[in-house]
Amino acid sequence: MSSEEMSDLWNSIFNVVEISNFGVTLVGIGVSFCGIFFNIFHLIVLLQKPMRVLTTNAFLIGIAICDVSRMVVTIIMFGLSFHYYYETTMYSSW
């Protein structure tokens, strides 16, 4: 294999990885939005006065709060990576 063919091979591999990374990121954002919605629904149910009596429900409330905060951070990080990616690709083509 010549040097040019090897370079073309690595460029095509990089393009496939970049496109699949974009798809995985979009799926991650969608899962995070759904997870936030459902966890907030669970929090509304678990924070009712009769539900707060059991220790198990207190643990479930803590888990739901941690899940929501993690998913919000995930959305922020994906948003920042999208912003950085499009900012660098738009300005590099000028």
TrEMBL record:
Alphabetical UniProt keywords: Membrane, Transmembrane, Transmembrane helix
Keyword Lipid metabolism annotated: no
Location(s) in or outside the cell: Membrane
Keyword Membrane carried by entry: yes
Annotated GO MF terms: G protein-coupled peptide receptor activity
Residues of the G-protein coupled receptors family 1 profile domain: 38-94
Segments traversing the membrane: 20-47, 59-86
Pfam families: 7TM_GPCR_Srw (PF10324)
Cellular compartments per GO CC: membrane
Protein name per UniProt: G_PROTEIN_RECEP_F1_2 domain-containing protein
